[in-house]
């Protein structure tokens, strides 16, 4: 089967120029990952381990120092509407209405002759605002919306042109706990409906376990994948309060242990299954 994203031997080094000398920071070192088509893949790791660097490379905003990243077999050569990004801060255009913000990617497609006409774009924006639970806010400007609503608009905008991959860099970190949980459920619901491949970065172990089919645990200095944990839980949306179940707690604890014990070589898995230690398929 064709994988959507293959990361092979990826390294990223930043040059730093100080007052007297040049130094290099290795943000990512020899990373291998394989993210399947339609997978919900979460990444957790300590601050500075290279999560955003990896996402920027996947987005085509930054290029690898070594190694390669392939999407459906083709190397990434720059940003593309096939890979949408949602950042922590609501990167909406303040001078555009919610509907116009959602249409930004659609207009870009139309300029390249592949898109919808104006009336179709308006309908599509309405559809995607409804999908994120924001019917009726089409004409509102970002400053008239709450933080959670703005992030919903950002998700609608990222999805409206139907990308293959959704890249999310701590998208819910700035929200209050209740809104965050609502948007987690909304995202799971959208993922189930659209089967878009999602790569989701978070600081939150619980968030990673709740959302991910796989959780990649990173270690820092230099940034590496420490372990990939397969999360074998029921459909989160069909179980009441899955976060309180024993199994959920075991996954959370296992990942917590990985993050807090950087010298640890092996750990037992919550389910007794063998953990995958590299992202590459066997
Ligand atoms: N443009 C840059 N120039 C120099 N160093 C950089 C640059 N971008 C990132 N780094 C360094 O690379 C390392 C990884 O940074 P990155 O932002 O990817 O980490 P992160 O895991 O996303 O951190 P956080 O969780 O705090 O957002 C850090 O040491 C950082 O200082």
From TrEMBL:
SUPFAM superfamilies the record matches: P-loop containing nucleoside triphosphate hydrolases
Entry keyword annotation includes Transport: yes
Keyword presence, Transferase: no
PROSITE patterns: ABC_TRANSPORTER_1, ABC_TRANSPORTER_2
Taxonomic path: Bacteria, Bacillati, Actinomycetota, Actinomycetes, Micrococcales
Protein name in UniProt: ABC transporter ATP-binding protein
Any Pfam family the entry gives: ABC_tran
CDD domains cross-referenced by the UniProt entry: ABC_NrtD_SsuB_transporters
Top-level taxon in the UniProt lineage: Bacteria
Gene Ontology molecular function: ATP binding; ATP hydrolysis activity
All residue ranges annotated as the ABC transporter domain in the record: 5-245
SMART domains with a match to the protein in the record: AAA
Stretch forming the signal peptide: none
Residue segments, region Disordered: 263-282
Keyword annotations of the record: ATP-binding, Nucleotide-binding, Transport
Gene3D superfamilies per the UniProt record, alphabetical: P-loop containing nucleotide triphosphate hydrolases
InterPro entries: AAA+_ATPase, ABC_transporter-like_ATP-bd, ABC_transporter-like_CS, ABC_transporter_ATP-bind, P-loop_NTPase
Organism: Glutamicibacter mishrai
